[in-house]
Amino acid sequence: MKTMDTLKEKPYICRSHERCRQMGIDMTRIFSSKMIAGDVLQKKLEEKRELIITAEPFMNQLYNFVKGSDFFSILTDEEGCILSVIGDEGILSEAFDLKMIPGAYMDEQHIGTNAMGTALAEGIPVQVSGSEHFIQAYHRWTCSASPIRNPEGKIIGTLDLTGYSALVHSHTLGMVVAAANAIEKMLEVKSYTDQLVLAKQHIETIIDSIPAGILTCDLNGSIQLANQYAAEMFGFREKEIWRMKIWELFEGWEIVQSTLSAKGSFLDEDVYVNARKNKLQFSLSAYPIIDREENLREIICVFKEVKKARKLANKIMGRQAIYTFDKIIGRNERFLQTIEYAKKIADSKSTILILGESGTGKEIFAQSIHNHSGRRDEPFVAVNCGAIPRNLIESELFGYEEGAFTGAKRGGNPGKFEVADGGTIFLDEIGEMPLEMQPNLLRVIEEGVITRIGSTKQIPVNVRIIAATNRDLRQEVEKGNFRKDLYYRLNVLPIYLSPLRERKDDIPLLMEYFIGIVSRRLNKRTVKIPPEYMRHLMDYDWPGNIRELENIVELIINTESLPQDLYKKNLSFQPHPEKDVEDCLQLEHMEHQHILYVLKKFKGNISVAAEALGIGRNTLYRKIHKYKIDCSIFEQCSDLEQSSFSMYVPF
């Protein structure tokens, strides 16, 4: 215990210890008595998104000051729940063992006296070192924490810097207070900015809602403002119009300028416009913007269509990221919340980690996030970390110089990070990344530079990283397969995609969607799913998630049959029991089973079976030969045998 003199110097320690004794805190406790994980933690991180994003650059800056000195930085919310952790690998291992991880509550009620919890309780910056901590397990630490307040003065979290107790220094608390103040200032600026943005959006929404093309320009013809309708009318992208001069869009600009300069009016005059596809005539009204000295400063041009012009495609040909949020099918409430959360974080510079089972649509979400962000016109590069051989992954990601190794391309080759510069790189199956490669990825995240193989030159890259995995990375960290510091860097903004079995109310909607697109692609008629079969589909667990559902739709459309294992667990007959389940999903296997069913039904009669199948006799003979089917075995089959033979139930 500290001496009375020390406690007098830090009265808040004395008050905190007294609170801990009154709450009955066990001094031998090791972990916080309150931990959250899974959906509960995901919801918490979604709620605190703004604080996490605002604090992240200041946490990085704070950590960079003490990097390599065995410190780590922690951000909590107003309840003391850890939201984010970054730090040195060695000390992070000890913190990880004490479960000082996102989801752990660090308030005094759950872990006793510590800088974060005591800062929340006292409402002031505090430093807690060694035995000043109430629980013995934390005597190894020195912790400096400061409350973070919103513009209204309410505490919304804490920022903390923790290291070994031997490293205690009063300057550490000063750095933390400075960083917390900077976060508060940024939140204040963001609040004012949000108000200005809201006002701007209000005006722009009003302008965009007007069914007319509205442009403003100065007297030199430089366009200052253009609403969405104007871009659609002229067939240009908004960015293109902003780079153009007003006289490039229509004929007669000089007349408009001279008329308004002479204080005349220019209303509902037909003018010829230079649209991208053809030359159209629009109706133009022009209005002057006058300064205090009665001088003409700008001109507002309002175009109305004489006839409707066709909209040009908004997509860039060959664009790699083709999915957008409006293309994602679903009405499950939790799933829709996930989409809204993904939209909100799309423009953040922070790393996103998409978690979910195989087949849940992780890359679709990654593409949608890219297309919802300000990087939508920049590259989207997808990399499957599990599909690249271990000896090639470094050159694939970071590139190489000429002569770096045997077989290196002349002139070298850029890596995926260089190709994605300015845009987004999607690292799928990040849990498969070799351990020895992980420090290189960590360096890109922390420093924003890459180095090609065979070179010492550092190349700066501005890349938004979206990672995805179907593994439990926390377990991989515990097993030693994944670095803790990289895990925390990637897990800044996690998104959890629910498996299909947890959003079964979306199955009818997804079935309808896939039946439509698969039917058009295969040039087949659409198939209507009877209600009784839809019930079986709803009862199925869908281990392959949406990818499996799409495959089943394709099988149904090709065979006009429903695979029996979706509605009947115990098959009375398995023609090929030695085959794996995956083999049974192959189209050739399905065709084989359907031919067996039809031959069985018509007792081996080739002519009748061929007619029922809609193919010629010779075609059926070829398929019988291909699958080595002995038709004689069907001649004596009873109806009971026949009903138990089929792998499919035709609609």
TrEMBL record:
Q: Name one GO molecular function term.
A: sequence-specific DNA binding
Cited SMART domains? AAA, PAS
- Tell me where in this chain the PAS domain is found: 199-241
An example GO BP is: regulation of DNA-templated transcription
Pfam families per the UniProt record, alphabetical: AAA_lid_14, GAF, HTH_8, PAS, Sigma54_activat
Q: Which InterPro entries match?
A: AAA+_ATPase, AAA_lid_NorR, GAF, GAF-like_dom_sf, Homeodomain-like_sf, HTH_Fis, P-loop_NTPase, PAS
Q: Which UniProt keywords apply?
A: ATP-binding, DNA-binding, Nucleotide-binding, Transcription, Transcription regulation
> Which intervals hold domain Sigma-54 factor interaction?
328-558
Q: Under what name is this protein listed?
A: Acetoin dehydrogenase operon transcriptional activator AcoR
